[in-house]
Design brief:
Layout: E1 24-31, H1 38-51, E2 55-62, E3 77-82, H2 88-97, E4 104-108, H3 113-125, E5 134-141, H4 157-167, E6 172-175, H5 193-200, H6 208-213, H7 218-238, E7 244-247, H8 254-257, E8 263-266, H9 269-277, E9 281-284, E10 297-303, H10 313-322, E11 323-334, H11 339-351, H12 366-375, E12 378-386, E13 390-397
Parallel strand pairs: 1-2, 1-3, 4-6, 7-8, 7-10, 8-9, 10-11
Antiparallel strand pairs: 3-5, 4-5, 11-13, 12-13
Helix pairs in contact: 1-2
């Protein structure tokens, strides 16, 4: 429920019944220093939280310190509050009324031109997908920002949590909060920005695949789009009517481009969250243990997956099991039999050392992959390449 600006700071009504388990919030309160009298302010903050029906674990975090929540504490929410402790209950009230299980919610700051400009530029650089100037007061489900992974001092913490939420597939929502008159979020130290960028652009980021399609790095964008065109061309040419599965879908744009009802399978929950937000049907599973009946799927797409798996029997047996006789398999993997891919991989290691080239634990060439699939009773239909290095092939099950 949203309240008017004049309601901030008023006594709230209890938001949970006595019979319900009160939700737990880890509240990290950013404060310049520990001073006498804070104990009384802290007691009032806890009393206010109790009247809201919230169990609160309060941590004071003076500048230069790293807050350490109890690792054994099970909490549903994490909140950062940047306000004097005697006003912290007003900020908690504001955030709690606007919380969302599907997003990190951050209060909007009162603009201070110089700091606002710097923060907006940083948000664009990190591709946080926000408009407006965030304050350092926020709330998020602990699924989005895990307390056990908190790093850095109090100054960098708010920006780190924004990045972590995006890495875990949660959007950031800025809520207008003029009545609170909160200052802008502190700009992180310059020395911390490379680590923030690396985390935001890691392969583990939930939206890595989708952002790569529109990457500001031109070669990456061209490569991703070329792969997409090849896969979709093969699909349009050879696909049959029936259930379609994209195995190892990640957060790529391929799944939303397949026929309506296509199912995306991946082991990454955050990446599947991105696909569900786009309206796709998803299942969290391993390619070696697919939750589908025998002879069920008519079309299977499996791109950039098998090189990350040791051996062939696990993924091959499962794909063969779920695919109908006469069904289509589109499979993609780097072709290590081609010098161009080996050169590309070495360049990739230098340009993007945080990438995933070292995760390629199985190496295939066109001839070896063809022999493996032929033995499993697949007939080759077409073999295509992305810039002569990445193999994408179509097979028909027999």
């Amino acid at each position: 429920m949203r309240r008017s600006a004049g309601d901030a700071g008023r006594e709230p009504k209890a938001t949970v019944n006595d019979s319900e388990q009160a939700p737990t919030v880890i509240a990290i309160i950013l404060c310049p220093e520990i001073r006498p009298g804070m104990e009384d302010d802290g007691a009032r903050f806890r009393e206010f939280a109790a009247r809201c029906g919230i169990r609160v674990e309060m941590l004071l975090a003076p500048e230069g310190t790293t807050p350490r929540p109890d690792p054994d504490l099970r909490a549903e929410w994490l909140s950062i509050i940047s306000a004097p402790l005697k006003r912290a209950h007003e900020v908690l009230d504001f955030l709690w009324q606007r919380r969302s299980t599907e997003a990190l919610v951050v209060a909007e700051a009162c603009a201070q031109k110089n700091r606002a400009t710097s923060l907006v530029a940083l948000a664009r650089f990190l591709e946080l997908g926000i408009r407006g100037v965030p304050a350092a007061s926020l709330i998020a489900p602990t699924e989005a920002v895990m307390p056990s992974k908190i790093q850095g001092d109090a100054r960098t913490l708010p920006v780190r949590l924004l990045v972590e939420a995006r890495v875990n597939g949660f959007p950031i929502v800025i809520e207008p909060a003029r009545q609170l008159a909160l200052p802008p979020m502190p700009f992180p130290r310059l020395a911390d920005i490379p680590a923030l960028w690396k985390s935001r652009n890691s392969f583990e980021a939930a939206d890595y695949d989708r952002r790569a399609f529109d990457s500001r790095i031109l070669p990456q964008r061209i490569w991703q789009r070329a792969r997409y065109r090849v896969i979709m061309d093969l699909f349009r040419k050879y696909a049959g009517d029936g259930p379609t599965v994209d195995i190892g879908c990640g957060s790529s744009v391929i799944l939303p481009s397949l026929p309506r009802g296509a199912i995306g399978v991946d082991i990454s929950g955050p990446k599947l969250r991105i696909q569900r937000a786009a309206g796709c049907v998803t299942v969290r599973a391993d390619v070696r243990h697919l939750p589908f009946p025998d002879n069920w799927a008519m079309n299977v797409v499996c791109s950039e997956v098998i090189e990350h798996l040791r051996g062939t029997s696990g993924w091959l047996n499962e794909i063969r099991r779920v695919l109908r006789p006469g069904g289509l398999l589109i499979i993609g993997t780097p072709d290590y039999g081609r010098p161009l891919w080996r050169i590309t991989e070495q360049i990739y290691r230098v340009v993007m050392p945080h990438g995933y080239a070292d995760d390629h634990v199985s190496r295939y060439a066109a001839a070896s992959l063809d022999a493996i699939l032929r033995e499993a009773q697949f007939r080759s239909l077409s073999r295509r390449y992305v810039f002569g290095a990445e193999l994408i092939a179509a097979y028909r099950s027999e």
